[in-house]
Amino acid sequence: MIPITTVEFGEEEQQLVLEVLRSGAVAQGPKVAQLEGRFGELFGSPHVVAVNNGTTALIAAMQILDLQPGDEVITTPFTFVATLNAILEAGATATFADIRSDDFNIDPASVAERVTDRTKVLLPVHLYGQMADMDPLVALATERGLRILEDSAQSHGASYKGKYAGSYGLGTFSLYATKNITTGEGGLITTDDDTLADRLRLLRNQGMRARYVYEMAGNNYRLTDLQAALGIPQLERYAQTVAKRQSNADRLIEGLSDVPGVIVPRQLNGRGHVWHQFTVRITDEARVGRDAFVEALAERGVGSGIYYPKLVTDYDAYRSHPRVIPADVPVATQVVKEVLSLPVHTALSDADLTEVISAVRAVAGA
Ligand SMILES: *Cc1c(COP(=O)(O)O)cnc(C)c1O
Question: Distance, CA 63 to ligand 1 centroid (Å)?
């Protein structure tokens, strides 16, 4: 079976983890600082604050914005549930804009329609490795005095007109096991704002400035050096990782773009895609429905995934939540029924790619 996701660690990770183990200092320390510094250097961020996971990163980013009860955050309903959980954990109210079908990301035109006097934050999610259309979001945020928080959990190193994900004020990344860079669990927050960075560092460590000097109510959001040791070598290799994912995506696009009922993903002009997922849409024109497609691929030894089977606002737990305001999102409602992700990871061989392509073609009857 060709898996939809794999984890690959090299000699360097083993060496570095051993180094930390032998040092006996396994909590937050120099390796975390090194991971933060290197990530900032590579992806244009003056401040990087590592935390224990990507959900915490989102929560912390909103907590330091001092959101008040009733303050609204506009996001996409087509995301991993962590985005919504973080908004609720931070005490804010979640509202939703529709998405675009060409990049699966929040539609700035829909956001503009849904901004209210209570809106404080625009929270685009850069889904599957490609950034949202940032220019109109920035224009809207500037006009209305809003913050932008980018959920870049799936988009390390993705870019929009030469600017990296996470460089529009506040950004968050996940280092979970399935992400493009992983420490098992882990998260990063990026910002260009000195004050926000300072507050994030305090918040992460019990609100403590110096030993037992508490300046704010804080928490324990720390990452460990053991985890950071796993991440550092992956950063050094990351350009190759993205190049391999890009060439895999190119192969899949070339092999599948003429298949009736299968719409291949597009890398939009001006955007650097890091291909966290390769997500096609199975339309009504296809010979088999999306769910049957997944099963038929599995029978042919090709793993695939549905990210995500429902919109976050489709679940009763959230529909009935007093701080969730569901909205009419026709594009997202359609797209969620069509998406199917195919393997695009770095462990794929040439033969694997050929197999994925021929399996999809066979199932689609092309
Ligand atoms: C993975 C993910 C998160 C959460 O990250 P964790 O590290 O798993 O907590 C948040 N948002 C999106 C879009 C994600 O894919």
Answer: 17
Please tell me the residue having the least CA distance from ligand 1 atom 2: 153
Final residue belonging to a domain, choices 216, 236, 256: 236
Position 2 in a domain: no
For the stretch 159-217, pLDDT in tens is 999 999 999 999 999 999 999 999 999 999 999 999 999 999 999 999 999 999 999 99
pLDDT, residue 117, reads 97
Query: Which atom of ligand 1 is the closest one to the Cα of 125?
Result: 13
| Cα of 262 from ligand 1 centre, angstroms | 27
Domain boundary among 190, 205, 236: 236
260 and 341, same domain (yes or no): yes
> Which residues, given as ranges, of the chain have pLDDT below 50?
none
Domain span at 118: 11-236
Residue 205, φ and ψ in degrees, nearest 5:
-120, 60
Question: Would you please indicate which residues are annotated as catalytic (active-site) residues?
Answer: 179
- Which amino acid residue places its CA nearest to atom 7 of ligand 1? 54
Distance 348 CA to ligand 1 centre (A): 24
Percent of the chain residues past pLDDT 90, beyond the cut: 99
pLDDT value at position 366? 85
CA 244 to chain CA centroid, Å, is 19
Per-residue pLDDT of 311-339, as tens digits, reads 999 999 999 999 999 999 999 999 999 99
Tell me the pTM: 0.98
